[in-house]
Amino acid sequence: MGVGKAHGKIILMGEHSVVYGYPAIAIPLKTIEVECHIRPADQRITFDFEDTLSTAIYAALKELGKTAATITYDIKSEVPLQRGMGSSAAVSIAAIRAVFDYFEQPLDKETLEILVNQAEIIAHTNPSGLDAKTCLSDQAIKFIRNIGFEQLDLSLNAYLIIADTGVHGNTREAVDKVAAAEEANLPYLAQLGLLADQVEQAIKDKDLLSVGQAMTAAHAMLQKIGVSVEESDHLVQVALEAGALGAKMSGGGLGGCIIALAQNQEQAQIISGKLEEEGASQTWIQKL
Ligand code: MEV
Q1: Which residues of the chain have a pLDDT value below 50?
Q2: pTM (2 d.p.)
Q3: Which end of the chain, C or N, has fewer beta carbons within 10 A?
């Protein structure tokens, strides 16, 4: 049997604007895991190139010259699907690792990332590479498309609440929607870039209030480019009314998750309780 593991991610700042070359800040969710198993089978595997997982398996087999392999695969995932928590990237990473493990082949980080991004094209059309990079990282990162990334020291002594609206997001549709109105959206995308820069500075200064304010301002920009939905707007409002320092939708949008910043654990628990009362289907608390 071949086994591969990976973890999810959440975007703190810069979703969508990252596609246009602005910086983004994202956090790995190391405790929310995916595991893929590859086993021998009687028949050759069939591929579905509209499915990210199947495409990831194909990309890995092609790299190894084994597309005619007689194998089968299964996935166990704690990362909810289509909620902006990196399920497509995490599933691809786990699957590619499992294929290489099955054939007892070494897999370097660079090859893994190239293969993941081939699969991500299915989920994203035009992936910036942010999701793959964050799911491959053990630390928060600042990422700029085609330029690179750096690790961020995120010791803020604060808490991030992640709340699932319960509505399936659709990154591909959201990325296409933003692109269809690119000219009108450019000022908002630039503003999202500036807000990500502000958060990077605020993280260095350990200025929680500024991080929170920039998050809420980013949500307004994400509304303007049309990727938020009523359920996300509602949960953002609930979090702010419950005392969050800031809140925004996170990920591709058109559903998915929101995130909210709390200054301590007690406040985080109050906010997550309120979010669940007001319709969040699931919440997670992540120490920053
Ligand atoms: C999706 O998790 C993040 C987006 O910025 C798309 C991308 O970066 O490829 C919406």
Answers
A1: none
A2: 0.91
A3: N
